[in-house]
């Protein structure tokens, strides 16, 4: 079972017991469903507050990092969790092959400047899912064009 369901179920049972103690003339089923409704409302409010906090974009100086030698099976959430230990992460973009749709093994992470510098120091040459990561500051496309000229 999922944690949210178990949480609602436990709170519903506690709510049903509490309501049946205060109003003994109510049937247990009514008390249980009242507790379930109260628990669902509390859980919904709690999860919406935590979701709005976790999706908040970092506002301040940011840096984009290039991350190479990523495992092909890695997902954006796993990379965000890894880099999130060092600072707020705004976005993770893992590059895919246009024809096959499979990941190419590299990507870009936009995060706070201070966190990006820490992540570069700590995660370059770091073993992640049996691969050694290469973490560098990403070059902008404008810089690449001026280098070729």
What does this structure look like?
With 149 residues, the chain is an alpha+beta fold. It is built from five helices and six strands. It has helices at residues 3-22, 28-54, 76-84, 113-123, 141-148, and strands at residues 62-68, 89-96, 103-112, 127-128, 131-132, 134-137. The strands form two sheets. The chain has a four-stranded antiparallel β-sheet. α1 (3-22) crosses α2 (28-54). The protein starts with a helix and ends with a helix. The model has no long low-confidence stretch (mean pLDDT 80).
Topology:
Layout lengths: L2 H20 L5 H27 L7 E7 L7 H9 L4 E8 L6 E10 H11 L3 E2 L2 E2 L1 E4 L3 H8 L1
Antiparallel strand pairs: 1-3, 1-6, 2-3, 4-5
Properties at a glance:
single chain; alpha+beta; 149 residues; four-stranded antiparallel sheet; 5 helices; two-stranded antiparallel sheet; 50% helix
